[in-house]
Each structure stands twice: as structure tokens, then as C-alpha cells.
Amino acid sequence: MKTQIICALVVFASMRTIAQEKETPIKTVAKAVTDKFPTTRILDLQYEQLGPTNFDSKLFGERFERGRIESHNRFKAAINVPFLTSKSRRFVLTSSLRYKYETYEFGDIYNYNSATTHTREKEEIHFFAAALSATYVSTLFHKPIIYNATVTADGNQDNFQRVKGFATASIVLKRTANTTFTVGALVMMDPSAIIPITPLLTYNHKFENSKWDIDFILPQRLLFRRELLENGRISLGTELNTESFYLNLNNPKLKGIYELNQLELKSGISYEYRFSPKIIGVVKAGVNNVMSVRVTEKGERTSNYVYDQKEDAQGYFRFGISYNPF
User: Fold this and answer.
1) CA angle 52-66-60, nearest 5°?
2) pLDDT score for 33
3) Residue 196 and residue 193: Cα distance in Å, rounded?
4) CB neighbours (10 Å) of residue 168?
5) Of 6, 71, 158, 243, which is most buried with the most CB atoms under 10 A?
6) pLDDT tens string 144-156
7) Which long-range contacts (CB under 8 A, 24 or more apart) does 231-238 make?
8) What is the pLDDT of residues 191-241, one digit of tens each?
9) Which 8-state DSSP code applies to residue 14?
10) SS3 sequence of 52-90
């Protein structure tokens, strides 16, 4: 879970409705952000079950192991609390806490070096993160703009590991009754970042005489959405997700703290349902394509990986519930 990238996209996506006049700027931003990203709501709980998959790995560029992951589960919890807002309602400080618990269960694993097959015990992973975020809403060239800076500290069950940060600026270039187009930039303050500066853009368009709309956020998602039933919304499309956690390794080849970074492309269907004005549930299902799994020494660039793993496509199912006071 690349927390900086996710938060940057959250802030950037909020530009869709910031130009509305009836509400304070910060409240308008919060409503737009929490609508798109459940993990930014006051409380969000998610459970994900990924289907079995085969993998093939390399260690230091040499073939290492191939085998099967029989079961892979994730539980995530997020708490976000805005604790300071300026009198103008244009500046807000928000504190966030994240927790992730992952489990892996394996089938037979073949080692290329020893030409033997073995089994591996169930692996349990814990990941923690705390963040402080400052957001300021203003105008530039008579257009709405959001500035954001976020600092994150994360770690695992053994210890605190790293401090990371980023800053963003994003502006609305076009906003009509049916179409919103925005651009911005993300600057990473993380020595392990492969690209320190990343352009961002969003495009949202509601089709004429239709309940469907398109929601595009580069580089994170492409969704086609529509309302379904009185309090529900269905979405079809693809989302790019990143997952990460720390590994404490102690073997002849790898000793110390390492980071695993996984890039996933999830395609499928989701349905959100509002049980009450403040409680929202979601169900997602589809196909998960793991684009890459890489392990690096803590703080090293992802391109300087020591371990690389390829996986077959797998099915996935996720359900979640969140509390959203807006």
C-alpha cells in the first residue's frame, strides 16, 4: 500500500466538485474525496479474499522458486480525523491511522537450486501507518486549486521503519454541468521513489440523457458508473492498486529489513449501498492481475530489487463498510 500515492490521488480527485458555491470549500472537498475513496472516510473496514495462483520467482536475477499460493487474505482498517480547521474553512489538518493484516498459505514449492520440493508455513503480515496531512483550498487564475502536504510514518509488528512524504497541487481546467477536467502534479519526498515528480489528471463526464458516467483518474482508475436501486451505485472498470509491507529476513542471502512492493490491476464490478446517511457498504469482485512483486532493502529504489516474483491472474472478492459523516 503506497500511502503517499493513494493520498495524492484522493486529494487530486476532490477537484471534481470544489467549485460548488453552497458549501464551505473544505466541506465540499471532503464530500468529493470520501465519495471516491472509502479509505478516506472517518472509519473504513475492508476484507479481501484472493483466489489461488501460481508464482515463479528470481533471487538476485537467478531462478529461485516456483510454487502455488493457495490462499491470500487481507484485512484493512483506516481512521481519519480532521482536528483543526481555519476560520475561513479553507485550511484543515487531518490525522490518519492505517492497519493491514495479510495472510498467505502455500502449496508445494519447488526450489531450482536444490531441485527439491518443500512446503512453507502460513505467513502473517502486520503493517501500520500514521499520517498528518495539511490541505489548503484557494484560487489561481480564477480557478479552484488545492494544495496538500502529507507526512507518513509506517512500520510492522517489530518496529517503526520509515518516514515518507509528498506534496501536491491540483487545479480545475474545465467544469461544466456534465464534464470536469483537472490537472496537477505530485512531488515525492522519499529517497526510494522511482519518479520524484508525477503528473496527475482526472476526467469525469456524465453522458447526456443517461444515468451512466465515466470516472477517469490517471494513473489509478477507469470506471463506468451508474445509480442502481434507490440507495445504490454500480461500477464497472479497472483500478490500479499498490500494496507494500516490511519483511524481517534472516537467512544466508538476505539479512535485515526489506520492503515488498506489489502492483495490482483489478478489473471487475462493484456495488455500493448506503444503509443510512452515514453508513455505506461495498462489495467488489473480479480478476486480479499482479503486474509485479519486488523486494528491496529498506529505503532502496524499487528498481534496485533483490527479489522478483511473477504470478498468474486470480479471482478476488472484497467487502467493506465505512462511516462517513458528510
Assistant:
1) 125
2) 61
3) 6
4) 23
5) 243
6) 888 999 999 999 9
7) 231/273, 231/274, 231/275, 232/271, 232/272, 232/273, 232/274, 233/271, 233/272, 234/269, 234/270, 234/271, 235/269, 235/270, 235/271, 235/272, 236/268, 236/269, 237/267, 238/265, 238/266, 238/267
8) 777 678 888 888 999 998 888 999 998 888 999 999 888 889 999 999 998
9) G
10) CEEEEEEECCEEEEEEEEEEEEEEEEEEEEEEEECCCCC
- Local confidence band at 289 (pLDDT 50, 70, 90 cut-offs): very high
Amino acid identity, position 75: F
What gap in Å lies between CA 275 and CA 321, rounded to an integer? Answer: 10
Q: Alpha-carbon torsion 286, 291, 293, 296, what sign?
A: negative
- The predicted structure's pLDDT at residue 188: 87
Model pTM score: 0.87
Residue 12: the pLDDT is 46
* Contact in structure between 239 and 223 (CB atoms under 8 Å): yes
SS3 300: coil
Inter-axis angle of helices 3-13 and 25-36, to 10 degrees?
A: 120
Residue boundaries of the structural domains of the chain: 3-323
